[in-house]
UniProtKB/TrEMBL annotation:
Coiled coil: none annotated. Residues 24-131 form the Cyclic nucleotide-binding domain. Keywords: DNA-binding, Transcription, Transcription regulation. CDD domains: CAP_ED (cd00038), HTH_CRP (cd00092). GO terms for molecular function: DNA binding; DNA-binding transcription factor activity. InterPro entries: cNMP-bd_dom (IPR000595), cNMP-bd_dom_sf (IPR018490), Env_Response_Regulators (IPR050397), HTH_CRP (IPR012318), RmlC-like_jellyroll (IPR014710), WH-like_DNA-bd_sf (IPR036388), WH_DNA-bd_sf (IPR036390). This is Crp/Fnr family transcriptional regulator.
Length: 220
């Protein structure tokens, strides 16, 4: 893998020039993991984990012991920034969903980077604020009593995020089901219902909203 690849693909560092990115990249350690291998766990040293290739599923355990999907981390995205500021990871895990390459930047090295490039502090604060909004949005999903409401909201949000009525689901259906607090079987039935009502068209992970206004009127 290109030694500049990890840092260069992360939006957090895109304001730095190539030489500065290379200096940060020299601090990271590279790790290749197999599908289903653990990348992030509570007993690990705090570090910023950047996905260079592949993908990482981030989950946490609920008070009842159930697994709750938090996010899917794709190339150029990262996880672990809150732990770098002292938050203790008590129940969050990161699992490779396919063969994956990650880069780790330890807490001490990351803090040195922030001292060297103080403008990154403000950008990181914006990123963390956006993460909090995403978590609050997911919490709202789980308070919606009906799966059709949660699914419609999820699809509309994806459409807005992609700025297109046609988009790819960012994760497997079973992970979407976990994210929305339902079962894969229930999710599949609801998707078929949306299709039969000509609200969506679906082919694998590719999905098109055929009648956005009606979807919002009926379920949001």
């Amino acid at each position: 893998m290109d030694v500049h690849h990890c840092v260069g693909i992360v939006p957090l560092f895109d304001q730095l020039n190539e030489t500065e990115q290379a200096q940060i990249d020299a601090l990271v350690t590279h790790q290749s993991v197999q599908k289903d291998e653990t990348i992030l766990a509570p007993d690990q040293e705090a570090a910023l984990i950047i996905v260079a290739n592949g993908a990482m599923k981030v989950t946490q355990l609920t008070p009842t012991g159930h697994e709750q999907l938090i996010s899917i981390v794709h190339p150029g995205e990262y996880e672990g920034e809150s732990a770098l500021f002292g938050e203790i990871n008590e129940n969050r895990f990161g699992i490779a969903t396919t063969n994956t390459v990650v880069c780790r930047l330890t807490q001490s090295d990351f803090q040195q980077v922030l001292r060297t490039y103080p403008d990154l502090n403000f950008k990181l604060m914006r990123v963390m604020a956006h993460r909090l909004i995403q978590l609050e949005r997911q919490a709202q999903f789980l308070t919606m009593p009906k799966i059709e409401e949660r699914l419609a909201t999820f699809l509309v949000d994806l459409s807005v995020s992609e700025d297109s009525l046609t988009f790819d689901l960012p994760m497997k259906l079973k992970d979407v089901a976990t994210f929305l607090g339902t079962t894969p079987e229930t999710l599949s039935r609801q998707l078929r219902r949306f299709e039969s009502h000509q609200l969506i068209r679906r082919s694998g992970r590719r999905l098109t909203l055929l009648d956005l206004d009606q979807l919002e009127d009926d379920y949001l």
